[in-house]
Amino acid sequence: MSRLIVISNRVSAPDGSHSGAQGGLAVALASALREMGGIWFGWSGEQTDQFTGQVNLQRGDGYTTATVDLEEQDVDEYYNGYANRTLWPLFHYRIDLAEYERGFAGGYQRVNERFADTVRPLIEAEDSVWIQDYHMIPLGHELRKRGCQNRIGFFLHTPWPPRRLLATLPEARELVETLFAYDLIGFHTAEWLESFCDFARLEMGADIDEEEGVVRFGGRSVRVIVCPIGIDAAEFREMADNDAARDTYEQMRRSSVGRAMIVGVDRLDYSKGLEERFAGYERFLLEHPEERKEVFLLQIAPPSRGTVESYQRIRNALEGVSGRINGAHADLDWVPIRYVNQGYPRDVLAGVYRASRIGLVTPLRDGMNLVAKEYVAAQDPEDPGVLILSRFAGAAVQMESALLVNPYSAEEISDAILRALQMPKAERIARWRAMAEDIEKHDVLWWRARFIDALMAAPLPGGAAHAA
Ligand code: GDG
Q1: Pfam families per the record (predicted)?
Q2: Ligand 1 contact via 305 beta carbon (within 6 Å)
Q3: Residue 371 Cβ < 6 Å to ligand 1
C-alpha cells in the first residue's frame, strides 16, 4: 500500500500547532494523509543561524509532520525573494512588480536542493509524493537526481502565466524543464493548463498529445490535468450554523441597521484587486446617490507578506483610498467602507458571509479563489445573497451563475452592485442553487481524490508496472 508524502512550503500539524497551512487545503491534505498514512514535509517557518537539515518529526492523528528550519539568507532569497517577489507577481501577470535577481534564483534553487536532501531519506520505495505550489517547482527534479523513482505529482495553486509573460523570466526555460521530472501536473483551470502547454510547445519544442493529456519533452512525458480545488463544503455549512457564526450573524445584522452589507474577504495582496474594488464601489456611490446610505462595504483584509515592499505599498495605498472615500462620502450616521486589517476565525467569517447581501470577490487574477465558494456555502438557502465575481478568478469557470465582472472596470462593478441589490428573491435562489450544488459536488475531497487517482494511474517512472 502506497503512503503519501505531501510537500508544501508550510505544514499543518495534526494538533494544529503549525499555523502555516490553513483552511480547506489543510483539511484536504490532512484527510488524504490520514487515509493513506504518510508524512507532511515543509519549512517550519523558523530561522536558524546555520542550516543543519535536522528534521523535526511530530507524530499525530494518522500522519507525521516533518519540518526543517531555514537560514535567514534562505528565507530572504527563497521565500521573500524568488517565491514572493519573482514568481508570485509573474504568475499573476504582474511583470511590473516581478523582480528578477540572480541571488533570488540561486537561493530558490539552493533551498529546493536542501529540501530534497532533507526529505529524500524519509521517502520509501512504495510512497507517492505530492508537491504543492510555486515555491517548489524544481523539487521533483532534485528528488529524481537523488535517485527517487517514486510517482511524483505537482499541483499549482496559482495561475500559469501566458507564455510571452513567462518568457521574461531569465531562467524560465530551465525552470519549466524541471517540471518534466513529474509524472502528473495539476492546474485549477483549462486556461492555466493551456498556457503551460503553449510555453512547452512554442518556447521549448515539446510535443503535446491533447487526447492523452500528455506533454513530451527530452525523453520524458508528463500528464497534465485540470483539477479545480473546492472547499470542505460540509464543514463550512455546519460552521455557518454554529454558535460563533450565529452570534456574528446577529451582531452584523444589528450593526447594519437595515442596510445591505457588501463583504470582501481577502489576504492583503495586490492580486486581489482591492484598489479597483474600492474604485468600483465609489463609482456606485456617485452614480446612485439614492442608494448610497442603503449599503456599506465591509472589507476584511488580513495583512500578508508584510516584509515585501510591494505589499507595504498596497497596504498604504488602500489606507489612503479607503480614508479618502470615507472622507468624501461619510455622514453623521453612515460610513461607506469599514476597512479591517485583521483576520478572524473561520466560523466568524462564515457568520459575516451569511449576513451579507453581496459577496464582492474581484481579484485581478487568481488561481481559483476559495472565498467565492465559502461565501456561497454560507448562505441561507431560503434567502441567499448575491456573489459578484471576477471573470479572471479560476472560480469563474465553475461559478457562471455569479454576476461575473471585469475587475478593472469600475462601471461593471458599480452596475453589478446595483443589479445585485435589486435582484428578485427567486433569481437569487436560482443562481445560488446552481453554484451551491457544484460546490457540494466538487468539494475539496473530490479535488484530492481526482489528483491522487490520476497520480496512481500514472505509469511508474522508468516504465515499471502499476503498483498502487
Ligand atoms: C491560493 C491561491 C487558490 C481569509 N481571511 C481570513 C481567512 N481567509 C481564508 C479564506 C480562504 C483562504 O484564506 C484564502 O483562499 P483564496 O483561495 O481566496 O486565496 P489565496 O490565499 O491567495 O490562495 C488561490 C488557493 O490558493 C487554493 O488553491 O484558490 O487562487 O491564490 O479559505 O477563508 N481565514 C481566516 N481568517 C481570515 O481573516 N481564518
Answers
A1: Glyco_transf_20
A2: no
A3: yes
CB-based burial of residue 421 (10 Å sphere; 0-12 exposed, 13-18 middle, 19+ buried)?
middle
Mean pLDDT, residues 241-264? 91
pTM of the model: 0.95
Task: Output the CA 366–ligand 1 centroid distance in Å.
Answer: 10
Q: Which among 78, 83, 132, 130 has a CA at the least distance from the CA of 103?
A: 78
Q: Rounded to the nearest whole angstrom, what is the distance from the C-alpha of residue 462 to the centroid of ligand 1?
A: 38
The amino acid occupying position 120 is R
Residue 174 has pLDDT above 90, yes or no: yes
Q: How confident is the model at residue 13 (pLDDT cuts 50, 70, 90)?
A: low
User: Does the beta carbon of 272 lie inside 6 Å of ligand 1?
Assistant: no
- At residue 16 the predicted structure's pLDDT band, cuts being 50, 70 and 90, is low
